Amino acid sequence: MNYKIKSPEAALKAVVQLPSSKSICNRALILNALSYSPYPIQNLSDCDDTAVLVKALNSNDRDFDIQAAGTAMRFLTAFLAKVVGEWTITGTERMKNRPIKILVDALNAVGARIEYIEKEGFPPLRIFGSALQGGEISLSGGVSSQYISALLMVAPLMEKGLILHLEGNIVSRPYILLTLQLMEQFGVKAEWKGATIRVAPQEYHPIPFTVESDWSAASYWYEMMALSRQADIQLNGLFKHSLQGDAAGAKLFAQLGVGTSFTSDGVVLKKTGNVTRKLVYDFVNEPDLAQTFVVTCAGMNIPFRFSGLQSLKIKETDRMEALKQELRKLGYVLKDSCNSILEWDGERCEAEENPVIATYEDHRMAMAFAPLALVRPAGIEMAHPEVVSKSYPHYWEHLAQAGFQIEEKSV
Ligand SMILES: O=C(O)C1=C[C@@H](OP(=O)(O)O)[C@@H](O)[C@H](O)C1
Ligand SMILES: C=C(OP(=O)(O)O)C(=O)O
Predict the structure, then answer these.
(1) Is residue 204 exposed (0-12), middle (13-18) or buried (19+ Cβ within 10 Å)?
(2) Separation of 229 CA from ligand 2 center, angstroms?
(3) Is the CB of 98 inside a 6 Å radius of any atom of ligand 2?
(4) Cα(226)–Cα(212) distance, rounded to whole angstroms?
(5) What topology does CATH give the domain 2-19+212-409?
(6) Which of 115, 259, 332, 406 could form a disulfide with 327 if both were Cys (CB 3.0 to 4.6 A apart)?
(7) Residue 145, Cβ density class (10 Å: 0-12 exposed, 13-18 middle, ≥19 buried)
């Protein structure tokens, strides 16, 4: 089934209860389990990536399928490595092609026993759980921060604790900070100096915990604000002093004419009229915002140069390729270089007559392209719109409530 999405007939008006952050949910679930917490987590997301982790942590099975959830795959691997028993963990075909060797090598070096069931370096995995001795290891920080977050959360329960030396440029650094800050809320202290993170053996202490709304999800509403002529948008559940790195999106959207005011409920967006001529930004710290900004700039006709995109190649799909392919259908010619830079200098090609945007099993492709309906009188047609459930299951409902017309088309 495809969706044809058309702009609201009147001005876009929305008060949105955003989904809660899956990054925070999935950390809180692991920390809750490690601290034997009696408190259920409040405002837990009903998105797929969180649901698979809830299911795994509550089941009596030995074999887990975490589908497409990168955090669940990485966090559960480290978690199970220290739970006595024999476990297997698998996921979607794409997950079987997302690398995990750095994490497996690191865990095996501190006393775990993890084997590959199919392809060396990739899920599915067989895990022989036991107490972990811990110690001092070096690993690359340049592939996925999720490996580091996974190791850190189990680190205080290792016999000798853990000293991690991070090699190379670190990608997605705010997610490591998020992990450390949440660990601290659960009573565990770590020290991060230079390229070294130290966690001494310690116990977690359970706390009642409420999850904040998702700043990555907020970015699509910022995009709608940027692309609409007139709009009235309020996003509930966001904090001014957020632990999420993607809160940086608010500042960056200021360059695209969207202002943010914080209220006791969340944020109110307004148009400022101050729009940059070209947007230049390094997304190494906020990779999940890259698609939003690529599509917004194209829709606003603003050239851009975005660097720091190396991790996009190993996410739900190769996001650099997917963006180039799908924007070409709409008449934009993007150039990539060094496996990490995507630019658009305003070059156009002939657009397809009836383009259908492919979503590549990637929620962020669907969510980033839908707002283009605001600037395309013919609307935007999209394949597999259901992919949004990975992080934002109510996205289409919320768009419909905001006045978008969404028509199902059988194919
Ligand atoms: O730790 C997390 O919650 C995440 C870290 C990032 O991944 P990488 O560290 O692989 O870039 C991000 O893209 C992902 O959506 C969530
Ligand atoms: C990359 C993402 O998720 P994950 O790596 O957790 O599958 C994402 O949500 O954009």
Answers:
(1) buried
(2) 31
(3) no
(4) 24
(5) UDP-n-acetylglucosamine1-carboxyvinyl-transferase; Chain (3.65.10)
(6) 332
(7) buried
In the chain, CATH 3.65.10.10 covers: 2-19+212-409, 22-199
Give me ligand 2 centre to Cα 176, in Å: 14
Q: For residue 408, which phi and psi values (nearest 5 degrees)?
A: -80, 140
| Ligand 2 pocket member 74 (CB < 6 A) | no
Pocket of ligand 2, candidates 47, 49, 171, 311: which has the most ligand atoms within 8 Å of its Cβ, to mutate?
49
CATH architecture of the domain with residue range 22-199: Alpha-beta prism (3.65)
Q: Which of 46, 288, 318, 362 is catalytic?
A: 288
Ligand 1 centre to CA of 173 (Å) is 9
What does the pLDDT read at residue 372?
Answer: 98
Which CA distances in Å does 79 have to 33, 72, 174, 378, 403? 9, 10, 21, 49, 43
From the number of C-beta atoms within 10 Å of its C-beta (0-12, 13-18, 19+), residue 11 rates as exposed
Sign of CA dihedral 83, 85, 86, 91: negative
Span 277-336, pLDDT tens digits = 999 999 999 999 999 999 999 999 999 999 999 999 999 999 999 999 999 999 999 999
Measured from the CA of 311, which atom of ligand 1 is nearest?
Answer: 11
Active site annotation includes 63: no
For residue 131, how far is its CA from the centre of ligand 1 (angstroms)?
27
Task: Give the residue, by CA position, lying nearest to ligand 2 atom 5.
Answer: 70
Residue to mutate, 143, 313, 390, 395, ligand 2, most ligand atoms under 8 Å from C-beta: 390
Q: Which helix (H) or strand (E) is 2 found in, with range? A: strand 2-6
| Interstrand relation of 2-6 and 405-409 (parallel, antiparallel or unpaired) | antiparallel
Please give the pLDDT value at position 144.
98
* Total Cβ atoms within 10 A of residue 13: 14
**Residue whose CA is at the smallest distance from ligand 2 atom 2:** 315
Q: Return the ligand 1 atom nearest residue 27 CA.
A: 3
Residues 133, 112: Cα–Cα separation, whole Å? 8
Distances (CA, A) of 400 to 89, 216, 357, 391, 404: 37, 20, 19, 18, 5
DSSP strand E in 332-400: where? 335-337, 341-344, 356-357, 380-383
- DSSP letter assigned to residue 20: B
The reported pLDDT for the residue numbered 341 is: 98
What is the pLDDT, as a whole number, of residue 326?
A: 98
